[in-house]
């Protein structure tokens, strides 16, 4: 294209003044690109180098009850509007919790949860000083929760507890269980091999400490917003606790 | 030019969210509820993660914006209108996602809000294309 034609098409002044402006624009665009690549690259790179998180993490502000309650959360089963709430603080690697989940759990479901009399709320309380895989198991259960399979995964973890508790690294077994349940394997593995949900599990543990929970399973029953009444972790103990709540004692 | 810079920012925000949805990184989220939003049923359209749609959308806007400032395309009415059309679809979809956060999921993700703000700014910055298109007729 001749100079004359180019000037006719773009305007001579536009070419001259546009040049400086365009250069400035490309500098800004380049700076944004470098910053973006840096931030995303650093996040992915540092994560790739960091190991699977299998113990509580440092979290600031959990001493503040309001902040704690923003992070801590239990996983619920049953009718959210049920008048009674049965709360469990449990550790997937604790044999007592395994016994409770496999023997008492189905009876509780049939008598209270499935009939709408009570809802069940499960909080993590891994006893990390004695159960080396408990924290990772709790995280794995939340990874399954991401795919709406918390409860089936909870059941599998307790049923298979004697197996994964004794291996050196249970991550591949946890992945096998996810596969058995038909979960998206890549998504589950990505979650497990990261620090995802470490904040929730850590906060749930902190909540347990604040409630002065000493061991697992700890079962509480509550009505409305009241403080939970601790009961024995048996069907009879829970029946008795609920009966006392209903009679207003 | 403004659209190009904003679209590039959008590409990186969407890439960051995509890396999280693939389980590669945790999200820096503060007191917001990013995990609640990202693990909700609305975080995917079928099997496609929403952040991937974001990468494609912002990427297309970036390409159009860069084409629009090249001498050959500078006077093209089509590029400007295509960009405006895409920005309109983008802002409508973003508004829908923001509604879901507010009314359905009832949780907020700071990166989704950032994306919504970027897309709204891109839409506003694309509006003068209507005037330019009319002038070029």
User: What is Rg of chain B?
Assistant: 16 Å
Radius of gyration of chain A: 27 Å
- In percent terms, what proportion of residues of chain A is strand? 5-15%
Using the alpha-carbon principal axes, give the shape of chain A: elongated
Mean of all residue-level pLDDT scores of chain A:
86
Arrangement of strands in the largest sheet of chain A: 1-3-2-4-5
Assembly classification: heterodimer
Give the ordered list of helices and strands of chain B: HHEEHHHH
Question: What do you see in this structure?
Answer:
The complex is a heterodimer of chains A (249) and B (137). Chain A has 249 residues and is an alpha+beta fold. Chain A has helices spanning 3-10, 12-49, 65-71, 95-113, 134-146, 150-159, 161-164, 171-180, 185-192, 198-210, 235-246, and strands at residues 75-77, 84-90, 118-124, 218-223, 229-231. Chain A has a domain at 26-139 and 197-247: Glutaredoxin (3-Layer(aba) Sandwich). In chain A, 57% of the residues lie in helices and 10% in strands. In chain A, strand 4 (218-223) and strand 5 (229-231) form a beta hairpin. In chain A, helix 1 (3-10) packs across helix 2 and helix 5 (134-146) packs antiparallel against helix 6 (150-159). Mean pLDDT of chain A is 86; it is low at 1-17. Chain B has 137 residues and is mainly α. Chain B has six helices and two strands. In chain B, strand 1 and strand 2 form a beta hairpin. Chain B starts with a helix and ends with a helix. The mean pLDDT of chain B is 86. The interface between A and B is medium-sized, with 33 and 23 residues.
């Amino acid at each position: 294209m001749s100079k004359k034609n180019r000037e006719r098409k773009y305007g001579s002044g536009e070419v001259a003044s546009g040049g400086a402006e365009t250069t400035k624009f490309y500098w800004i665009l380049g700076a944004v690109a470098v910053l973006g690549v840096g931030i995303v690259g650093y996040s992915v790179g540092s994560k790739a180098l960091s190991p699977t998180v299998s113990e509580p993490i440092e979290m600031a502000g959990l001493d503040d009850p309001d902040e704690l309650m923003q992070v801590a959360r239990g996983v619920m089963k049953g009718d959210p509007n049920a008048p009674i709430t049965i709360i469990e603080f449990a550790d997937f690697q604790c044999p007592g919790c395994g016994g409770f989940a496999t023997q008492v759990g189905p009876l509780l479901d049939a008598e209270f949860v499935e009939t709408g009399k009570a809802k069940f709320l499960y909080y993590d309380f891994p006893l990390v000083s004695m159960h080396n895989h408990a924290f990772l198991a709790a995280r794995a259960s939340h990874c399954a929760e991401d795919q709406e399979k918390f409860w089936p995964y909870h059941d599998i973890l307790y049923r298979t507890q004697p197996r994964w508790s004794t291996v050196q690294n249970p991550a591949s077994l946890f992945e096998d269980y996810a596969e058995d349940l038909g979960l998206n394997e890549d998504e589950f593995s990505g979650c497990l091999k990261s620090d995802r949900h470490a904040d929730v599990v850590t906060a749930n543990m902190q909540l347990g400490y604040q409630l002065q929970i000493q061991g697992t399973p700890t079962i509480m029953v509550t009505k409305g917003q009241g403080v939970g009444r601790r009961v024995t972790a048996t069907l009879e103990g829970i029946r008795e606790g609920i009966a006392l709540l209903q009679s207003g004692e | 030019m403004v659209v190009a810079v904003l679209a590039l920012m959008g590409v990186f925000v969407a890439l960051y969210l995509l890396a999280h949805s693939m389980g590669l990184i945790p999200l820096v989220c503060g007191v917001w509820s990013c995990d609640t939003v990202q693990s909700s049923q609305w975080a995917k359209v079928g099997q496609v993660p929403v952040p991937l749609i974001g990468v494609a959308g912002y990427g297309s806007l970036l390409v159009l914006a860069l084409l629009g400032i090249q001498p050959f395309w500078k006077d093209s009415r089509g590029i400007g209108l295509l960009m405006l059309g895409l920005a309109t679809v983008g802002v409508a979809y973003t508004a829908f996602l923001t509604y879901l956060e507010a009314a359905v999921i009832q949780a907020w993700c700071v990166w989704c809000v950032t994306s919504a703000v970027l897309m709204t700014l891109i839409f506003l910055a694309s509006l003068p294309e209507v005037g330019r298109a009319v002038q070029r007729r």
